[in-house]
């Protein structure tokens, strides 16, 4: 059982960039976390179509996968995104909240391997897939 209490961690909302984007906690499970990015006209990247820009979605996925690492490890510790590959499959649907699920697949002594999916209605019809690595900074010497 994990001693990292994600709900307590996000109880007061996100700070910084996450707060500016309006990110919210959505759901969690063993080794995975879902965040929600509510539709906001300030985040539109294509005014003609009303589609959210890619940057806020990348930020959400980086945060969801990062949180998934802490959930899997069972504690908060410093870490850094080493690589996060994003494959966009389609634009977000205007007016809909985007959900981002991050999952920690494997932990080594100093690296966490993650993957994730962003969707706005049905996880079977994703907007994007992500895969990446985080460097953990509290590994024993």
List keywords for this structure.
single chain, 141 residues, alpha+beta, six-stranded antiparallel beta sheet, two-stranded antiparallel ribbon, 39% strand
3D structure, described in words:
The protein is 21% helix and 39% strand. The protein is globular and about 45 Å long. The strands form two sheets. Strands 1-2-6-7-8-5 form a six-stranded antiparallel sheet. A two-stranded antiparallel sheet has the order 3-4. It has three helices and eight strands, in the order H-H-E-E-E-E-H-E-E-E-E. By secondary structure, it is an alpha+beta fold.
Number of strands: 8
- Strand composition percent: 35-45%
Terminal CA distance reads 26 Å
Number of helices: 3
The average pLDDT is 92
Radius of gyration: 15 Å
Oligomer: single chain
Which stretches of 5+ consecutive residues score pLDDT under 50?
A: none
- Return the structural class: alpha+beta
The biggest sheet, with number of strands, parallel, antiparallel or mixed sense and barrel status, is: 6 strands, antiparallel
| H and E order | HHEEEEHEEEE
Helix content: 10-25%
Q: Give the neighbour order of strands across the main sheet.
A: 1-2-6-7-8-5
Query: So what's the overall shape?
Result: globular
